[in-house]
Design brief:
This protein has one domain. The protein contains five helices and no strands. The model has no long low-confidence stretch (mean pLDDT 84).
Length: 121
């Protein structure tokens, strides 16, 4: 029960952060890939924290019998590891998407140049 309360408190603070900083910046930029590096990292960390926290709280609810077997520290040992892992995976995923977007723009520019050359022929 203590673990779930701690996670809910953390989720509440994270919700305030999301609604005050991340969501307005996303609305202005239009895409997470168009955010500045610092805002993008804040959005990714906040999103990873939110996703992992909801999953972990649900896991603690389903795994209620574990509370009798393990201490609070043991129950929460994987929590920070999962947050860091989720954040790292989101950073890799957005880096891949940003790279794909840049490749697509380069390829589009190549096709535009070829079409202009053919049109002038």
């Amino acid at each position: 029960m203590q673990a779930k309360i701690g996670i809910v408190v953390l989720l509440t603070f994270n919700g305030f952060l999301l609604h005050s900083a991340v969501l307005p910046a996303l609305k202005k930029a239009g895409s997470i890939l168009k955010l500045s590096f610092n805002l993008r990292m804040l959005a990714l960390f906040s999103g990873a924290l939110s996703g992992v926290s909801w999953f972990y709280a649900a896991m603690l609810g389903v795994g209620r019998p574990l509370a009798w077997k393990y201490s609070l520290v043991e129950l929460l040992a994987a929590y920070p590891v999962l947050i860091v892992g989720g954040f790292a995976m989101m950073v890799l995923l957005t880096a891949w998407a940003k790279n794909k977007d840049a490749e697509g723009r380069t390829e589009q520019g190549t096709w535009d140049t070829r079409n202009a050359a053919l049109a002038g022929w």
